[in-house]
Design a protein that fits this description.
Layout lengths: L1 H32 L3 H28 L3 H16 L1 H9 L2
Helix pairs in contact: 1-2
Length: about 100
């Protein structure tokens, strides 16, 4: 029972962080593309595609290596990619 609560907490926090990234992405591209229905639709579509791809790849890896360490490594990798948004935005805005 304790493992279910731990997994549920991790999923809740990861989903919360994904929502924060989604809202931040909309604000970050607003100066360049504006705040319109098309902008938010694009942000939501890209986020849903990323969630789907991440769930597929993470599920395949998790099925192959079903340990808690694997979950930690996958969350660490996704957080590194999320933090990479900041330097990429600085590079793109300087172009």
């Amino acid at each position: 029972m304790r493992g279910i609560w731990r997994a549920g907490t991790i999923v809740f926090l990861a989903s919360f962080c994904t929502l924060v990234v989604e809202l931040t992405a909309g604000r970050m591209i607003a100066p360049y593309l504006g705040v319109s229905l098309y902008t938010w639709t694009s942000v939501i579509g890209v986020m849903l595609a990323g969630i789907s791809l991440g769930n597929y790849i993470g599920g395949r890896i998790g099925d192959r290596f079903p340990t808690v360490t694997t979950l930690g490594v996958l969350v660490l990798i996704s957080s590194i990619f999320t933090l990479a948004i900041l330097p990429m935005t600085a590079i793109i805005s300087g172009i």
